[in-house]
Amino acid sequence: MKTKDFDFDLPKDLIAQFPTRERTSSRLLYLNSSQNDWQDRLFVDLPDFLKPGDVMIFNDTQVIKARLFGKKDSGGNIEVMIERIIDEHHVLASIRASHAPKINSKLILAQDIVATVVERGHDFYRLFFEHERSVVDLLEDYGQLPLPPYIARPTTDTDEARYQTVYAKNLGAVAAPTAGLHFDNSIMARLLDLGIRIAYVTLHVGAGTYQPVRAEHIQDHIMHSERFYIPQQTVDRVQQAKKDGGRVLAVGTTSLRALEACAQQHGGKLMTGYGETNIFITPGYRFQMVDRLLTNFHLPCSTLLMLVSAFAGMDAIKKAYQHAIQQRYRFFSYGDAMLIEKNHEI
After folding, report:
1. CATH architecture of the domain with residue range 67-142
2. pLDDT digits 0-9 by tens, 282-302
3. What pLDDT digit, counting tens, does each position of 200-232 carry?
4. Could you say which architecture CATH assigns to the domain 3-63+159-341?
5. CA 298, CA 335: separation in Å to the nearest integer?
């Protein structure tokens, strides 16, 4: 299967540059992929598609202020994007510079924060922050929120709040789990009142989520790795839903990736604990945990578009995306949402 099979023309003015006025005021495209049918709805209609006993899985990761600016000790401006916090003083990061920094060289970031380049592996550097304060504290004070590359404007105070989910609590992501950005506290309470079970996973989204697949054949793409955690309560609620005939709805591709990766690693069972995954879900994948997916509209030739094509079927996704473009749905992180029923015929 070739990467170009997942390409499509998207008018630039459909790429959402700002969030909607209210979190829940976006649109919702409902896709029943088995019947190749869709409905144009509003996000506030989401509870209409749920029933008591269903379980919704949210990713409670919190976006860190992962972007830092500075200079190399040898001169030259740099931009550092934290990919992962390893411990209190070590991180993995990508570095934009006119010339790649050398191993053991020093980076002077923000207000005289010194970081040493320890090693390099593939696209990322391992850095050691020589400061008495932890990396998390330093980023909170001196870092900038890392908006996606397709949002072509500076970060604003509004982004500080709106590029986080209302339930975010575990610091570590460099990109938001964007399907969750549509929820506010009122709709969360409404779901609970309707008897919908809510549970959480933590998957710290990496910058690799934005990277297009550059290989001609998708099987040649090297997937980025992400760390996740699944609590016992989530295992229990998923098992109970399946026992009672309820459906498992993953809120976002990151929640789906955590659940499916765990099942893949444990013989089809959901287990509590930490895990590391570079799962690459493409058409032909057999889903074991998730029945429905709430997600945004994704980039051409992206791994996320391949994932939803595996979930719904390539033909159904192509037609739904064509419809979304014709109806001028808003795309990507601050865009509209899509509720997809898993195609049981593929």
Report:
1. Beta Barrel (2.40)
2. 999 999 999 999 999 999 999
3. 999 999 877 777 788 999 999 988 889 999 999
4. 3-Layer(aba) Sandwich (3.40)
5. 10
